[in-house]
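ok so dumb question maybe but i'm new to this and my supervisor (M.) told me to 'just get the structure for Diguanylate cyclase (GGDEF) domain-containing protein' and walked off. so i did the thing. is this what she meant?? sequence i used:
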Amino acid sequence: MSRRLQRSPLTFQVTLTVMALAIFALAMVVGFGFYATVQADSVSLERQKILFANGMRDRIAAVDREQESIAVWDDSVINAKAGNVDWMIDNISVWMYSYYGHDRVYVLDAADRPVHAMREGNVLAPARYSEDEPVLLPTVERVRRLIREPAKENLAGGPVKLAAGDLVELDGKPAILSIMPLVPSSDRVIQAPGSEYLHISVDFITDALLAKIAGQYLLAGARLLPLSQPVGGAAIPLVDSRGVILAYAGWDQERPGSALVREAGPALIGGALLAAGVLAFLLRRLRRASSALQTSQAEAQYLAFHDTLTGLPNRALFEDRLRRALLTASHETAKVALLYLDLDRFKHVNDTLGHPAGDELVRQTAARLQQAIREVDTVARLGGDEFAMILIDVNDIRGAEDVSEGLLQKLQEPFKLADDQVFVSASIGIALSTGPDADADDLLRKADIALYEAKKNGRGRYQVFAGDMDDLLLRKRQVESELRHALNGGTGIKLAYQPIFAADGSTILGAEALIRWGHEVHGGLPPAQFIAIAEERGMIGQLGKWVLQEACRFAVGTELPWVAVNVSPLQLRDTGFAEQLAAVLAETGLAPGRLQLEITEGVLLDNNDTTRAALAALRRSGIAIVLDDFGTGYSSLNYLRRHAIDKLKIDRSFVNLLGRDESSAAIVRALVDLADALNVGVTAEGVETEEQKALLVAMGCREFQGHLLSLPLEPAQLLRLAGLLPGNDSTPAAVSA
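this is what came out, is it supposed to look like this??
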């Protein structure tokens, strides 16, 4: 008994010792965990501040680069000093707002008087500059000192950049300010020292801008914090050149240490209640939780920079790699080539085979592109069927062309999609870095322009960016501006009318309205050219409405049975087009049965709900629908049946070969028979010889249009030809086709 009593204190002491050791060990673990959590959060916060500060510096530098793209330009000097307001709107102010997002732009003359002002895309009276002048004046004077005494301002020696920037506060909001003199880009323009005009750009620092910067580093909740609001640790001050804090940029702090503790918390609480023997198990749980969190973060990091469909780098990772490649290339002799690629007629695959087939086509395309380039290069999916490739260590453009030729050949091989074998092609735009100052955004822009040219020139090919493509883009913008002016009360745009005859060659059944533009500088512009610009720039609705109004006004004052007007697919995609056309008919008084709308087969191929509803509404109102250029596109009998077309127009390419090519004759005969079977009318376009007309009559065609019968005519000439005006002339002078 005494021995048992003697052992009990010992057992109790051992138990206490074990418990104490366990509690001590657990306390050490908890203490170390808390310390590690605080340290991890602190280190992470400092990294976040550095990343955000770098992002702000990059944006300030970007504003400077963007402004330099128009400040160092012969045309800027010439047009600003000439007071060319329209040019400054298109190229110096509104361009900076619409393309780069600069909120305010001013142009000052050599005496610092305002000659041009823009705010948020709206051109204002130059005198409005006075509202911002007190804030901008110190930086303006700084630039003037740099221009007058560059050596004194640059005490460190080296080249002087005649520009200045700062963070300022305008209208109670912080903003990035950059001021540069307008200077020539070549020796063609001579500018006397001291006569420089100044270009002022202001980019407000908004929540959206901060969110864009934060998104580059996977930070969330970026926002602008005013001085009156309490500021936490996850914030950096926005300081001007005088050291005055204008505001704070804040974000939601990432706390990796705290997240780890929350994940492992239940296990730690359970470990505190268990005996010392369970401590090892808790440590293993902690390691597993840590590993799971790291895996989750790694997956999130991967998803943030990779495309989920193909596994390729996405746009964010692509742009980062492109900038890194250009930075490396600036220190070496090799160049960087950027290839911009997209599949031709990808929408056709989606519409005919379904979106799953389209997704599979994108996956197979991505695999082929990866196989066709080196491991050191990058291929990325930018969205939809668009891909981009970064080729490093390229000596000249020939190397990029060789890769492009290989890619085109690889993509010409058939794709296996479900039970179908599909053949597609691709178009590629190529841009090559030009030197140590190459800019990623500029290289992307050039590759995009080259891709557009490749598609315009026939698809299934590659196109290298050339300097004159920028001139072409500028010319397009000029044509766009002049077209807007012409539609808003200007002159030059008019309609010609090409009559459509019956089989006797003298009876006029109707006329097709054809738009013409006699440009003051470029002469007669081809309709296809300025119509394409109108579609690209969102003006086709306005242009199409003008054509409809003019054609209806002309027809209502004549005895012509009907007039035909061509309609763009983009007009039919407008949900209000049918109502707009009804308003035009009501305004002009033309009966719906005297109007025919000519559409292309692409409209039927589009096959969306809006188009189908518009065509159905137009036919119900009595307007006839004519399918133009039939036989050259992708339409099927199912499309013709579904949309109930009123008339087919046989394309001139088939008519032109009649009498010379038996296969063309067979096609035309089949098209006429098809129209007869569908109980719709048929018109032959491009009839130029009596032999063609005789063959068409024999096939059963009863409507003809072409130069054999009449060229496009002025309205009065058409009426004289139809015998509706005095002085009937069977061969009036035609309007240029």
